[in-house]
Amino acid sequence: MKIVDAKNLTKYYGDLKALDNIDFEILKGECFGFLGPNGAGKTTAMSIIYCFMPPTSGNVRVFDMDVTENQSQIKSKIGVMPQDDNLDPDLTVFENLIVYARYFDILKKDSSRLAWELLDFVELKGKADVKIGSLSGGMKRRLILARSLINNPELLILDEPTTGLDPHSRRAVWEKLDYLKARDTTLILSTHYMEEAERLCDRVAIMDSGKIVTIDAPSRLMDLHGGNLEDVYIKLTGRKLKEVVV
Q: Which of 87, 157, 158, 174 has the fewest CB atoms lying closer than 10 Å?
């Protein structure tokens, strides 16, 4: 079953073509990765999927609904873990979850129960009453993950979920995503960490300058082209990730 189906997707920002006529589909229960450097078009593609911005042209359907016509229905079934820290610093850890639940019209008695369950899931129950400024970077990322799950989404979109984290914190987030995958939650992940893509993704779309170079399972790409995913990227695009300008 297709959760996302994109055809001829193009996005311009003024004269800049951020997405260049790309096609992809994402299946129920899989972890699909957009792999590439900053500026490749990963975040733009995901932003269109969760109805944050419209495409310039092309067609994108999520849960068999058009992203330009059924935004409310689509958003109700999606959780989003953005790259940036947009937690409310004036609220406690617990309050951040409660306030966010209001966007989904979740009753207060239910949101409180859900908040405690999610804090337990991301191992932050002991931090429930502290302000955001007291949290480490890894704790903030885990809290943002918890917040993205408040509406029990069928599709979870994760934009660079472990950027800036130390190896221990990164692995902690990966373990939570493994659990969600086992629960048949569909995951869409953007990353420039090759190890992360190899570890989590069933299939990856290697992106470069707004185009999709190829889509396949990480293991198959490495078998076909040799080396790790970074080696594959270099072979397919002709340049290293660090050579791409943001």
A: 174
Summarize pLDDT for 78-120 with one digit per residue, the tens: 999 998 889 999 999 999 999 999 999 999 889 999 999 999 9
Q: Which residues does 35 contact at the CB level (< 8 Å), separation at least 6?
A: 42, 190, 191, 192, 194, 197, 201, 204, 205, 206, 207, 229, 233
Contact between residue 84 and residue 161 where contact means Cβ atoms under 8 Å apart? no
Q: In what order do the strands lie in the sheet with 186-191?
A: 78-81, 155-159, 186-191, 31-35, 203-208, 211-216
- Can you give the pTM of this predicted structure? 0.92
Residue 229 near residue 221 (C-beta atoms within 8 A)? yes
Q: Is 230 exposed, middle or buried (0-12, 13-18, 19+ CB in 10 A)?
A: middle
**Residue range 176-229, pLDDT digits in tens:** 999 999 999 999 999 888 889 999 999 999 999 999 999 999 999 999 998 888
Q: How far apart are CA 162 and CA 164, in angstroms?
A: 6
Q: d(Cα 29, Cα 155) in Å, to the nearest integer?
A: 9
pLDDT exceeding 90 applies to what percent of the chain? 83
